[in-house]
Amino acid sequence: MTRLPSLLARALAVLALAGLVAQPVAAQSQGPSVLRDAETEALLQDLVDPLADAAGLGSGAVDIVLINDPSMNAFVAGGQRIYIHSGTINEADSVGEVQGVLAHELGHITGGHINRMSEGMANAGRISLLSTLLAVGAALAGAGEAAMGIMQAGQRAALGNFLAFSRTQEASADQAGAQYLSEAGISGRGSLTFFERLQSYEFRRGISQDRENEYARSHPMTGQRLATLREGYEADRAWAAPDDAALQQRFERVKAKLFGYLAEPERTLQYYPIYLDTVPARYARALAYHKDARMDDALAEVGTLVSLEPDNPYFLELEGQILLESGQVPQSLAPLREATRLTGSNPLIASMLGHALLATDDPANLDEAESVLRAAVGRDRENPFAWYQLGVVYGLRGDQPRARLASAEQQVMSGNPQAAMMNAQAAEAGLEPYTADWIRAQDVQLQARGMLEQMAERN
Length: 459
Fold this sequence. Notes:
This protein is mainly α.
């Protein structure tokens, strides 16, 4: 297989995951972390489902993954899964803005743009290969400087070809997103507001808006996208449709919750000062106080929230979490049990309940802990925390093969394939052949082996 020159290869590695925003991407030794929160995931799913229906994919067909990154961005990377940065939630003011972003990313999914990325790469590769052959010929003829010029020109042409291909895909995703918003009866006002916000974001960061530099971008100019979309949105029958008030309320709470969790406590208290008595403000402050080890203040804020809405499972979840993490383990069980019940055993909340039951150090709680944790991983296998806790349960029961299997599950999701392989092999050796767990141990080994092969290829 022909290798692309290093300059182009590096550019493609970044652009392959480009989503809504064209901006410099800093190289990182480790990727950004994924944020898991039951309330946030439920909201994002409710935001994308009507759009997925409009796109012909169906409710529940598209997953949303929240990435811990302060920049305004979203992307797809294959499959029916959208990755959205926490910075997008923080910068947006309405559900309409977020749905505009999700609609655009759905356009990439339905257009098969990630799968078609190889087409753009192949075209760029052919240009680059031709320039390489010409450069070799020039070098053999003794024209070293000419050979270098040909190579550099070829790299620029290849990159320009790929960027033009990417801009075409982005424009296509814009139009598809507008169609899905319209068919779902959602106004494009939020989408336009987000693009205006994006344009301001680019101005602040010195990202060129000069049309002469458009050829160097993976996305069309934001101003051009705004002008194109505005005409269609304003003529659309859904233009005057109001935002869903219930979804907007949930969005404001989730936004405050994420802010309180991610920001330094001092910054949260500046943004949500104590004289604000709204639910979002109390939510954010409860998390800020918790991070700052001001447990009495945190419990006072969350206690007020629970008194306002006694059946809100997410307020109860936070109350249980604060109690658990402040060492009041027995007191944490009641709110966590109720939150688990109210959400129909949401896997993330059930995982915390399982952890709290184990933290009591009471053998009488092992059966309940095993039950809730097995239910959690049964509904959400991508939950390393639940797998770890389940492994603890099996270890306490003396069931070492299943403890090793749970550990293997946790390690393969935590990016440690070598340890996952070792534990899965030990589990397989100790489990009864042809049982479900024995077969799963083999599956984990295959998954870990694939990860190790990919790591070897990268090195």
